[in-house]
Amino acid sequence: MKKLWSNLAEELVPYQPGEQTTNENIIKLNTNENPFPPSEHVINAIKTCNLESLSLYPDHDVTELKKELSNYHNVEKHNIFVGNGSDEILAFSWQAFWNPEDVIAFPEITYNFYKVYCDLYRVKSEMIPLTADFKINTAAILNDVKGIIFPNPNAPTGRFLPIIEIEEILKKHTNKVVIIDEAYIDFGGVSCIELINRYDNLLVIRTFSKSRSLAGLRIGYAVGDHHLIQALNTIRYSFNPYSVDYVGMKAAIASIQDDQTFRSNCQAIVEIRRATIQKLESLGCHVIPSMTNFILFSHPVLNGSIIYEKLKHKNILVRHFDTPKIQNYLRVSIGSETQMNAFISSLTELI
Ligand code: PMP
After folding, report:
1. Ligand 1 pocket check: which of 19, 20, 30, 86 to mutate, most ligand atoms within 8 Å of Cβ?
2. How far is CA 209 from CA 115, 119, 221, 252, in A?
3. Residue to mutate (ligand 1; options 111, 157, 206; most atoms within 8 A of CB)
4. What is the pLDDT of residues 34-46, one digit of tens each?
5. Could you read off the pLDDT of 6-24 as tens digits, one per residue?
6. Angle at Cα 191 formed by Cα 186 and Cα 193, nearest 5°?
7. pTM
8. Which of 139, 212, 304, 307 can pair with 208 through a Cys bridge, CB separation 3.0 to 4.6 Å?
């Protein structure tokens, strides 16, 4: 067929999401979803949505949710941006903060989408090296980059960088936007949101997809200086002002209001993670310290891709990345206690 699409559409290598399945026999531990359903409070909020109002466009300012989040984080409403999942906010950030041909820095092993956004928006990237034990080597960030971004804790390593090291970066790189992607912060890390009042170049991005069990509703938000938020708004209003829907907003508000369920679910996941790490180590696996709802591990003899295939054969889906330095590793999301027991017993059998 004759070529009817752009060079970009022809050349881009898009992000590869983890496999999704409707097969209920599969134990799905490959996309860092939360094993707990949304809380009763959230489900009630969805059930009591005014469905007749679905004929209207949602509030493009997402005012009610911004108010809730500004109380929760003790910041002003103009310090908050809400988007359709944190992926959308990340994409807007590339457009809001960096020009084509700018060079930005992110870790050599990190969330794969960062490289895809660089290709999509023609931004260049410089890798921040990791130490042998997968810690981000912040001292190696070059001075002449136009921006810095990484998840904290990092993905798919799970390693957390203390807030003091983030402050060092902010002090050293005052003339560039530093984005901290806190998708996994609620599983034991300490947020750097409080730093936004002192550093006008810091943007913190969060999601309701992991710790708040709402991946299906696509809600994310960012917190930062109001000038950064304004730049994001300019991009959003030039793309799709209605990217956050009415039902998603109501559910997100209810989730913030139900702090107790949120905290106890996060605590349960941390506890299941601790027990799983112990079992993996007793099987002889090498485990990277994790502050997330997943664990990156390897086995001294069995290759990562072989374990991946064998687990899949036993209806257990984990994630294998064909990325240098972690080819021999697997990432397993923290599921329910029952799911993790099934994972460990299958792994024990095949080892
Ligand atoms: N950042 C990181 C580090 C992630 O792992 C993910 C989930 N794949 C996201 C952002 C995007 O999350 P969402 O779009 O569901 O908010």
Report:
1. 86
2. 21, 25, 11, 10
3. 111
4. 999 999 999 999 9
5. 999 999 999 988 888 888 8
6. 130
7. 0.97
8. 212
